[in-house]
């Protein structure tokens, strides 16, 4: 069973994402900012991370920079998931080491496609 | 509610016009798809719509009904596997047999809003070295002129550009305009769109090396499927390739094709 860590300061978004992810049989962990996400990663590195941009205490990009410096910090697939939807922010996220990028609002199709894209889910022909 | 006789009329109408086969229980689909058409045309209910279609006095109404019933949501790199096969196996194999300077021709037979031909165009750009200077022509057809107009513009909303499209491709090949994303002129110029009903002859399109005819045969009955496959075989090069949708097959429908070396594509049956 693969683990996905959902990092978002909105409890609603975490809940929505959790429901979708559990539907595809992921184990889901939650964190409400970058700092508590790092603490989770230090306990056990997840397989994937769904990462909001703007959060109190530590933002998504700050978290990602620190994560990628960790010994096994290159392993998790990181998918940004944010309302920031311009070319500048997307490029910045990829340059910082993100694997994919979701522009909110998202639905089940989009999340599934992006997880397939980074190799966390198998593609099912439909 | 649709009267049984009206439902029957629409079924036959759609079958004749587009090949679309509706089973007995598609009243809901019919109503939800045709409601916007009726509103636009100022038609109050299904019975009057059927009357208007029978007289044929309202120009464009028949096309609008066919458009509404045959337009289906599409996504970039749908099912992924065909596109992986195209770049890793089919193109390299085909190009060995095509001299530099020859043009490779690809046909998307149910192009819808353009995601499939544009996915192929982006893939070709990504694999430019493979082409070795050979020219590629992508012809994209669909029964609906409305979706083709959208496809030609190449403008997609935020949901559409996140379905199947890797974010790298979004950055490389799209520009943001307001809330929408438009695919680059360079990619658009690689695709030629034209309207085509697969029930009608398509010899005039010329011969193709690769045909994508995905997720359209499923809407046809068996004789129509066989007929379309036979005529595709007529426009496919002897050493050409055919891609069908994930739930489609040639089995029991055509003897002209056999499965390729990997699941997901077909080649012409070798001459005995």
TrEMBL record, chain A:
Query: Which UniProt keywords are listed?
Result: Phosphoprotein, Transcription, Transcription regulation
Write down the Pfam families for this protein, in alphabetical order: Response_reg
Q: Which Gene3D superfamilies does its entry note?
A: 3.40.50.2300
> Superkingdom of this entry's organism?
Bacteria
The Response regulatory domain sits at: 3-119
- Its GO biological process terms? phosphorelay signal transduction system
Residues bearing PTM 4-aspartylphosphate: 52
| Protein name as it appears in the record | Two-component system chemotaxis response regulator CheY
Give the organism the record lists. Answer: Prosthecomicrobium pneumaticum
Automatic annotation (TrEMBL), chain B:
Top-level taxon of origin: Bacteria
An annotated GO BP: methylation
| Catalytic activity of the protein | L-glutamyl-[protein] + S-adenosyl-L-methionine = [protein]-L-glutamate 5-O-methyl ester + S-adenosyl-L-homocysteine
Give the range the annotation lists for the signal sequence. none
Recite the lineage of the species. Answer: Bacteria, Pseudomonadati, Pseudomonadota, Alphaproteobacteria, Hyphomicrobiales
CheR-type methyltransferase domain residues: 1-272
Q: Which UniProt keywords apply?
A: Methyltransferase, S-adenosyl-L-methionine, Transferase
Determine if Methyltransferase is one of this entry's keywords.
yes
Q: Name one Pfam family in it.
A: CheR
EC number(s) on file: 2.1.1.80
Q: Which Gene3D superfamilies match?
A: Chemotaxis receptor methyltransferase CheR, N-terminal domain (1.10.155.10), Vaccinia Virus protein VP39 (3.40.50.150)
Top EC category? transferase
Task: Indicate whether Methyltransferase appears among the record's keywords.
Answer: yes
Species annotation: Prosthecomicrobium pneumaticum
Q: What is this protein called?
A: protein-glutamate O-methyltransferase
One Gene Ontology MF term: protein-glutamate O-methyltransferase activity
């Amino acid at each position: 069973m693969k683990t996905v860590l959902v990092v978002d300061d909105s409890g609603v978004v975490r809940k929505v994402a959790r429901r979708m992810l559990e539907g595809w049989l992921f184990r889901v962990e939650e964190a409400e900012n970058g700092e508590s996400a790092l603490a989770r990663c230090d306990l056990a590195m997840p397989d994937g991370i769904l990462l909001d941009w703007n959060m109190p205490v530590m933002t998504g990009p700050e978290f990602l920079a620190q994560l990628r410096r960790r010994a096994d910090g290159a392993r998790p697939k990181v998918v940004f998931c944010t309302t920031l939807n311009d070319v500048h922010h997307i490029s910045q996220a990829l340059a910082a080491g993100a694997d994919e990028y979701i522009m909110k609002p998202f639905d089940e199709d989009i999340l599934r496609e992006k997880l397939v894209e980074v190799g966390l889910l198998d593609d099912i022909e439909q | 509610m649709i009267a049984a006789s009206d439902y029957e009329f629409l079924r036959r109408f759609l079958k004749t016009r587009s090949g679309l086969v509706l089973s007995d229980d598609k009243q809901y689909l019919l109503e939800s798809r045709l409601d916007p058409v009726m509103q636009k045309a100022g038609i109050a209910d299904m019975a009057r719509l059927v009357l208007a279609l029978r007289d044929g006095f309202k120009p464009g109404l028949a096309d609008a009904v066919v458009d509404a019933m045959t337009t289906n949501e599409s996504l970039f790199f749908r099912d992924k596997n065909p596109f992986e096969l195209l770049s890793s196996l089919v193109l390299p194999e085909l190009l060995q047999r095509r001299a530099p300077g020859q043009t490779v021709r690809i046909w998307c037979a149910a192009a819808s809003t353009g995601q499939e031909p544009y996915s192929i165009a982006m893939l070709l750009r990504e694999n430019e070295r493979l082409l070795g200077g050979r020219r590629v022509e992508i012809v994209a057809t669909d029964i609906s002129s409305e979706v083709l107009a959208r496809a030609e513009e190449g403008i997609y909303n935020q949901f559409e550009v996140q379905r199947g499209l890797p974010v790298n491709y979004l950055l490389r090949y799209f520009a943001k305009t307001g809330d929408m994303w438009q695919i680059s002129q360079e990619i658009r110029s690689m695709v030629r769109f034209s309207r085509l009903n697969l029930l009608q002859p398509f010899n005039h399109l010329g011969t193709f090396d690769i045909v994508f005819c995905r997720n359209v045969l499923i809407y046809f009955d068996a004789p129509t499927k066989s007929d379309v496959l036979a005529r595709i075989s007529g426009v496919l090069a002897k050493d050409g390739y055919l891609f069908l949708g994930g739930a489609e097959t040639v089995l029991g429908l055509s003897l002209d094709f056999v499965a390729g070396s990997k699941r997901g594509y077909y080649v012409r049956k070798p001459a005995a």
